Amino acid sequence: MITIINDAPENVAAFCATGEITKEDFENIVIPRVKKKVEQFNELNYLLYLDTDLSNFTLGAWFQDALLGIKNLTRWNRAAIVTDKEGVQNFTEIFSVLMPGEFKSFPKKNLYNALFWCQNGNEVETSAV
Questions:
Q1: Averaged confidence pLDDT in the chain
Q2: What is the DSSP annotation of 11-46?
């Protein structure tokens, strides 16, 4: 299931992924929220707090995720993936070279820092968190 992180900064489309992730999660929650943010701010600042294994994403969810990226290709500004999975963190760093905008991974304990980075493009000092 994907839920909206409601206390995220206004210019950030922020989501939490838990359990099984389906195409309906993208169609009903992610895509409408992303569309609203892009229309409102003319760019996409996106955060995904990944609290599930990637194997829990259905094929339809992966397809919708790919479409989301393609449809908003020129609007990506900043995207943060928050996870403790090292493989996902490494993939995010590699992916950032291929996509427009900035992509960055953060460990789960740094969710606040990830939200701040999505909003502002810089990080808070870790000693201040």
A1: 84
A2: T-EEEEEES-B-HHHIIIIIHHHHHHHHHHHSSEEE
